[in-house]
Specification:
single chain; 113 residues; mainly alpha; Multidrug-efflux Transporter Regulator, Chain: A, Domain 2; three-stranded antiparallel beta sheet; 5 helices
Length: 113
């Protein structure tokens, strides 16, 4: 599982392959980069390299624009909200686990809430 997660951020697809995988023109990907929706890595030769996570993000962008009619400003807001939700879910899980550990460490003491 750790290997898969590290691969998700590994820049490995050139722009033509990434565009083909997502179903858009390479110029569209360049535009998305210009407006800040995606930040591909760069090779030493300055070639754009997209990771599997970048591809997934691009697919979300395409779905939002094509299937749901969201404009690019709306896409940016939606993506930021999705990232914030993921962050809050992680924090919630960590706090829940901490509460469980604390309750397990002191079984005789009960919260008065």
């Amino acid at each position: 599982m750790t290997t898969e997660r590290s691969f998700d951020n590994e820049p490995c697809f050139v722009i033509s392959i990434a565009a083909n995988m997502v179903g858009v023109h390479a110029q569209t990907l360049r535009y998305y980069e210009r407006v800040g929706l995606v930040m591909p890595s760069r090779s030493e030769g300055k070639r754009r390299l997209y990771s599997p996570n970048d591809i997934e993000r691009l697919r979300r962008i395409k779905a939002l624009t094509d299937d749901m009619g969201v404009n690019l400003a709306g896409v940016e807001v939606v993506l930021k909200l999705m990232e914030r939700i993921i962050q809050l879910e992680k924090e919630n899980t960590q706090l829940s686990n901490k509460i469980k550990r604390l309750q397990a460490a002191s079984p005789g003491k009960r919260s008065q809430s």
